[in-house]
Specification:
Largest sheet: 7 strands, antiparallel
Radius of gyration: 42 Å
Strand content: 5-15%
Distance between the termini: 92 Å
Order of helices and strands: HHHHEEHEEEHEHEHEHEEE
Number of helices: 9
Oligomer: single chain
Structural class: alpha+beta
Length: 426
């Protein structure tokens, strides 16, 4: 169509522009401008194929290409590369109609490949119960009964009982050993590495800043609490139990003491022998005078604070401490405004057996590292003195029957300031 020079192409095209108004009472103020906009839009959409840069009123960020928002316009449907055609819905036979040779779903069972299966022998290998059944079956097949030694490994082990009797006489008197009255030379703490395995957790009203100020003070004293039996009244503190020795002595097959770092328990499992060994170890640290003046005290819970009727069928039972069942889910902490919680706090601490290691704060972390490295040597043989020949034989064999147990490895101990207020856990 011929048009004068300089005249837009859409002016020579007959178009109808529909202008939709939000309200019938509204009339467009400029019909001519709206008509021109509609003609221009129609021309751009129908003239020829070219790139158009539309202006978005919502902002350019709406159409910004990102990893979570992509757009593709005028997407063509995919084409089938296979020559096999698809069956439309009209070609699907009625339900129950038989297939004839030549149909796409026509086949014979004898023409199919053999089905491959497994004998499922891998399943019983992971279940010990199947091994026991197989052992009993083989014993009956050969006309004999399986011996008890063959089946003892599958029988559930008896859980050791816990010692719930008072332990006032467990550690020889005196139960308080003050630090030696002597002059102590300054100790180079760089020779004894500080404990850095875990981060300290402040106990209210202490916070990180006040704990830092406490540890940086050079003339204050504090104490580590080592649980012996029961649960200290602070969340996260390691608990402890004492195993009951069968017939007054440990047998060769156990039960063994253990620390909280065995991934199956979060408590320390003591024996009477291991507690005596720990007390001897702490006295040797005190007498060595390498970490300043150290005082030791053993706090034994009163007899009425121990439930003597508790059988404690397993080492996981924590009912040695009668206060453990009072609000166990929400243990009260020091400084609580609730008077009843403060009473429970004092009662729980009074009903717990523990050892207190009082020392200069300057050596606290070094002493904590020594406690973590403490090892109890458990001998599998009978208790008592050994003769010289057995000792020499053990030296030749490398003491294979001795078992070294890290009793405090992974334990979370409570640290108290000079006013017996809990400062932090580590």
């Amino acid at each position: 169509m011929h048009r004068p020079s300089g005249t837009p192409a859409y002016l020579n095209t007959r178009l109808t522009v529909h202008d939709f108004l939000p309200d019938t009472n509204l009339v467009s103020s400029s019909l001519a401008s709206r008509l021109e906009q509609g003609r221009a839009l129609a021309f751009v959409s129908s003239s020829n194929a070219q790139w158009i840069s539309p202006c978005s009123n919502a902002g350019s960020s709406t159409f910004k290409i990102s990893s979570c928002r992509l757009y593709e316009y005028n997407l063509q449907p995919p084409l089938l590369s296979s020559a096999v055609g698809w069956f439309d819905i009209q070609s699907i036979p009625e339900w129950g109609a038989g297939s004839v040779k030549g149909d796409h779903d026509y086949f014979k069972l004898e023409d199919l490949d053999e089905f491959e299966s497994t004998d499922f022998q891998i399943l019983p290998r992971n279940l010990r119960i199947f091994d026991r059944v197989e052992l009993e079956f083989q014993a009956r097949l050969h006309g004999k009964r399986a011996s008890d030694t063959e089946l003892c490994g599958d029988q559930p082990a008896k859980r050791p009982r816990l010692d719930t009797s008072p332990i006032t006489d467990l550690i020889p008197q005196p139960h308080f050993l003050p630090g030696p009255a002597a002059k102590f030379d300054p100790v180079d703490t760089s020779r004894i590495a500080p404990y850095r395995k875990t981060q300290l957790v402040p106990v209210s009203p202490y916070d990180t800043l006040s704990v830092t100020q406490l540890m940086n003070s050079g003339f204050r004293r504090g104490a580590w609490l080592i649980p012996v039996r029961g649960s200290l009244p602070w969340d996260g503190a390691t608990t402890a139990v004492i195993l009951e020795s069968p017939n007054g002595a440990l047998s060769a097959s156990g039960p063994y003491p253990s620390g909280p770092d065995n991934a199956s328990s979060c408590k320390i499992t003591w024996t009477r022998e291991s507690l005596l060994d720990l007390w001897t170890f702490l006295k040797s640290i005190q007498q060595a005078k390498q970490l300043g003046p150290i005082s030791l005290s053993f706090h034994a819970a009163p007899a009425d604070a121990v439930d003597s009727t508790d059988t404690a069928s397993g080492p996981t039972g924590e009912s040695n401490n009668p206060y453990l069942h009072l609000h166990q889910s929400s243990k009260p902490t020091a400084g609580s405004p609730d008077e009843f919680s403060a009473y429970i706090y004092r009662a729980r601490l009074e009903g717990t057996d523990y050892i207190k290691v009082y020392h200069d704060i300057h050596y606290s972390l070094s002493l904590r590292n020594i406690l973590d490295a403490y090892r109890y040597i458990h001998n599998d043989g009978s208790s008592g003195a050994r003769d010289q020949s057995s000792s020499s034989t053990k030296q030749k064999t490398g003491a294979a029957s001795d078992q070294k147990i890290r009793m405090l490895k992974g334990a979370c101990l409570v640290f108290m300031d000079e006013r017996s207020k809990a400062a932090f856990l580590m």
